Amino acid sequence: MGKISFLIRCIFICIFLYSAIWKIINWEKYKSVVLSYGIVGEGRLLLTSLVVVVSEIGLVLLLIKSDFWKISSGFGSLLITVFTIILLTKYGEVLVNGCGCIGDDELHQIGFRDILKNIIMLMGFVLIVMIEKTRGQT
């Protein structure tokens, strides 16, 4: 596996592991963030919150095993795309509990910076695919 691909995977492992741990440690605050998006109600709040945390942990496990680069890149891209779409629905709004992005719980307006972080992460997953496909052809 290429050094750049390995480095990107290590960065993603740290980011998503931190995010999942933050959500577990700050469980009530995290549920407030999820609720503030207005996409799910109280009835599905616990399930939705658990699915996100388990998905992030699952992605970390897939990223650790280098043989699963296709699955981890696809799954990571899907997660980031869903998170970005959700952020776009709240673009310009001030969320009292923050956006929940990688442990962000500070009051701020959802803006370009939040979207850009996700686009950069999505590009990282695309880069992993490009590097690994190129390596497979040699």
From TrEMBL:
One GO cellular component this record assigns the protein to is: membrane
Query: What InterPro entries is this protein classified in?
Result: Methylamine_util_MauE (IPR009908)
- Keyword set for this entry? Membrane, Transmembrane, Transmembrane helix
The protein's topology relative to the membrane is: Multi-pass membrane protein
User: Where does this one sit in the cell?
Assistant: Membrane
Q: Name one GO biological process term.
A: methylamine metabolic process
Domain of life of the source? Bacteria
TM spans, by residue?
A: 7-25, 45-64, 71-88, 115-131
What is this protein's record name? Methylamine utilisation protein MauE domain-containing protein
